[in-house]
Amino acid sequence: MSNAPKPAAAATTEGTLANIVSHAKEYGFVFQSSEIYDGLGAVYDYGPNGVELKNNLKQLWWKAMTQLHQNVVGLDAAIFMHPLTWKASGHVDGFSDPMIDNLDSKKRYRADVLLEDRAAEHEKNGELARAETLLAEMGRLLTSEDLAGVRQLIIDEQIVCPISKTGNWTEVRQFNLMFSTQVGAVAEDSSLIYLRPETAQGIFVNFLNVQKSARQKVPFGIAQIGKAFRNEIVARQFIFRMREFEQMELQFFVRPGTEGEWYEHWKTMRRRWHEVMGLPADKLRFHDHDKLAHYAKAAVDIEYEFPFGFKEIEGIHSRGDFDLTQHQTLSKKKQQYFDADIDPETGKAYGNYVPFVVETSAGADRLFLATLCQAYQEETITEGEGDKEQTKTRTFLKLHPAVAPVKAAIFPLVKKDGMPEKATEIFNALRHDFRVIMEERDAIGKRYTRQDLIGTPFCIVVDGQTLEDDTVTVRHRDSREQTRMPIAELRAYIGEAVSFSRIFERL
């Protein structure tokens, strides 16, 4: 039996970034790091609800990669690596961003970001061709390392500092993004090492260890979730660009010559995953790289339309054999794989070769932000009857039950007549399977509102009838409908809704 509320009086709308940032702090999703000391720029902490949501997103990615694919296994590599790792990968010599300073405000900016933002403005104004021309020219200049040309492009576009409102720019120069530190007990005997700027190299240096121990045959993949660190000068847009962040990466090793088809495969699969996770198809798009790394054969970003425009949430790259070959050269340890399969053209085994790599790299923090932006909803609803009828704005997080921080909240209608005790029984019966909470304070409407604001899909109300027939009212977050059901059915009912299977079956 269902008790349906009055329908919303106005269409649901999404919030601005300022709304979402404020909501994230107030309801325990994201806090500024070291806030009592006025914070540390571009570093954030995940609160009680934020850590649950982020962990759920990471677990879904992990299981989708390693559990649904027999030829993908996991790894958890150390943050500190031998410094020659970063020499081989090119990070020591070439991991930098083009920076430009405004002489009036004394603020530093990434030159490419300034130009990308201007291109986004052109696109927003309907000048798509102008935006594409600008990005293509920027890519050409950066590829040829023509930093003077990049500066002139900024001047030609009449880009000004948002603080000083002037175009009094310095020359553009490269700024290395790696954090360095010392390893060793005594300062004078210590060695320079780096906090890893990406997680991929930990996979590459363990390629043969994993392949042999996991008895994998090419093609196969190695998945990893881990922290990375970049000394971003331009860190903005909340948790979109941070100095300490988390990557979810798959390095997929393939036979040379097959990388193109695997690149297209993972490009399709990864976009599909984001759609199944709840990001609408019309708010996702592919953006092919205008500037390819010197080793790359192809690269594309999956972009989501944030409140501040389309931005990357995941990259798919065809990396060739660059990484393994570089490590083989510098370490003098062979990184070859023996392929016993028969080449139909020669009739002989493929033999030894350095595999090519197709990479998918998603930002856990960016996925978290995209999920939060998409889930944040404001709608106008009508409550009450007759003279007491009123409209109000309802804010809630429309999170998929599988990723919601809390799966169900249990409310005794009143704090007497045995209802709190019965609610405690239900809480104890469910807490081993799901993250549930019990609340007794305030009117039932206020308790519903609190759960809506953190995205809890179900509220379970214990009332007088519960004590008579062991049934409860289950209130649904999105529709606000209320359904009566036996307590004995709760575990199966919630379990069906929050199961990862509901997502996996659509992949």
Automatic annotation (TrEMBL):
GO molecular function: ATP binding; bis(5'-nucleosyl)-tetraphosphatase (asymmetrical) activity; glycine-tRNA ligase activity
Residues covered by the Aminoacyl-transfer RNA synthetases class-II family profile domain: 132-401
Residues annotated for ATP binding in this entry: 230-232, 240-245, 312-313, 363-366
Chief localisation class: cytoplasm
Family statement drawn from the similarity comment of this UniProt entry: Belongs to the class-II aminoacyl-tRNA synthetase family.
NCBIfam families hit by this protein: glyS_dimeric (TIGR00389), PRK04173.1 (NF003211)
HAMAP family to which the protein is assigned, alphabetical: Gly_tRNA_synth_B (MF_00253_B)
Descriptive protein name: Glycine--tRNA ligase
Organism the protein comes from: Hymenobacter actinosclerus
Source taxonomy: Bacteria, Pseudomonadati, Bacteroidota, Cytophagia, Cytophagales
